[in-house]
Amino acid sequence: MANLSNINNKFLVTTGGDVGINTTSPGSKLDVRGSGYFLGTASSGAALVTIENNSGSTATSYGLLVLGGGNSSNGRTFEVRDASGNTDLIVKGDGNVGIGTAAPDSPLEIEFAENTGTIKQMLHLDYNPVNNYGSALFKISAGTNSAAVTQIEQVTSGGNGSFGTYQDTNIINRGVGGISAGNINFITGSNTSASSIVMTIGGGSQKGNVGIGTATPENKLHILRSSSDTQSQLMVQNGSTGDAAIKFNVSGQSYVMGIDYDDSKKFKIASSSNLGTTDRITLLSSGNVGIGTISPSKKLEVAGSYKLGTNGYIQYDASYPYTITTANTASVGNLVFSAGLGSAPYESKIELQGSNTAGAAGITLSTASTPRITVTADGKIGLRKTDPYYDVDATELGANSYAWGSGLAIFGQDRYNIRELNNLFYSANTRCAGIGSSSNLQSDMFDGNFDSAYAIGANTTYVVEIDGTGVMNMTYPQGYAVISFYYIYNNYTSLTGEQYHYSGTYSGQWRAMGAATNIRGSAGSGGRVVRLNSAGNNYVNKWRFTFVTGSTGINVADIAFFTSRDAGAQVNTYMRGDRTSEWTRTIRFRNDANTVVGSIAPGSTSTAFNTSSDYRLKEDLKDFAGLNMISKIPVYSFKWINKDKRSHGVLAHELEKVLPQAVTGEKDAKKTQVVDYSKIVPLLIKAIQELKAEIDELKK
User: Fold this and answer.
1) By Cβ atoms counted within 10 A, which residue in 28, 118, 340, 593 is the most buried?
2) Residue 689: its pLDDT value, please?
3) Which domains does the chain possess?
């Protein structure tokens, strides 16, 4: 049978069943050449054209194959338009597919042009909407490496996703492990360099690390900012009335740090899951820091004890004064500085206690866990005594307990009560036993005395310097220095003396005194006294003595002075002689005008306590009623506080009302009042005279 064709060969049906339109040699069952379209009307629910491949599941068969359009982006291989001629779907010659656009710029471009500003769902992937099981997976791959794959997966509530989770969204980068590859990067801007990466979720060897500002995160969260400005790099904010905090946790122990909104917006660190319960450190907006307290009133306030570690210290860089204060009102241990805590033989500490109770310890210095020096709230000092009775109480110190270092020993410029120091230094047969002793016990209020005793070993050079600067600035001194030795070993190789001149011809120079000469005893005798003449005729305020011993040591008992000032002989100053020689032991008392107003002078069998009474010092002599005054003075038998002893006497403030010149000090002042009972003697004499006169009158 011949081919069936129409006029001009526009329609042809071959004997093989192929149909050609506008062609005489159709190459397929339907071959249409030239432009054109199908026009028809389909009923509702029916297809205008149906193409069906009924050859089974043969891999090489097609349901619809469209060829043509060329290989360029200008070719249109397949296109679907709406009634207005707008492209709904197009397959270009270069393989790009466009939905809603006639010019797709990528293998798939979906475009929706609408000027309403509404939200438009552009793509919906829905898997298995019938039985709610499995997951929908969107896969992106590049290259031939099977690991260069990224998957975005939505798991149904039925589960069975890539990680067996439920209703999760999984973003999966199949990057290889062991190297810095497989990252998920978030990039902003048009720059394609690594600097445009604003956030990275690490893969490979960085797996699980998140980087902000870095593409190579080294930790679970790594924030990098390369800038010279002062902006912060991390912000935790609560936009409502709750806390802004970060929580840390390991093995059941949690810590939280952040801002506690309910507590005046303080910054805290707490050892729990929430702020406000177990707060450990608190920082106020004022800069005050509290440890163990949430209301610090100072720059650093610690509720409880704190410890400085090895080589720890507190450094003050501010201006003077430096203050450490406690507000603790407990009865003990307001402020304690301790070293060697926990080992009694090594522990040393200083305890400061705030107290206004007389006798209560205010400052305690301890070594080897034993109190050594105590200063009470009322100013008394105890040496190895925690409850001092005297202003300086050394009653716990035993014999031979006093020593002042070896070599050159210099005391300061303070004035001393000579007798009290002599008692303090006295022990057994020696005074100030031990090696090294020196003092400036001379004073312009008292005649000086220097009782001492110290052993100087064999083959030793030993220097004693006595500094009287400010208290014994002598002008034109004349006199002697007397040194006494005791025990049989009192020999020396040499003994030299020097005087320091603070002004005059030899200002700033040490000048040798005369050679030492025996004035009593000799080397090897039971007692020996030597004398060194003064340099004379200049201004002196220091003395220095150098002892050099040979094969035998020496024991020095006393160094004493007799000096005078020659300038018109206005003032004589006698520094006591040693305790065995002929020199006097007079102690003289002077007033502010440097005039002698009293003295204590020991004689051969007694001691005289003298006070000024010369008629040339007195005027306006009047009679008085001595018996009447004596009768107004209350006298008691009483017991001393802190002493189990009774005595008789007056109360200072009551005597002050009758005889104020016999009382020193003020009632209830910091320093207690004292009484000079000798001032009452004139009243007693006058009262006796008045009583005698009455008795004589009665006898008539």
Assistant:
1) 340
2) 94
3) 135-223 (no CATH), 244-302 (no CATH), 331-397 (no CATH), 399-582 (2.60.120), 622-699 (no CATH)
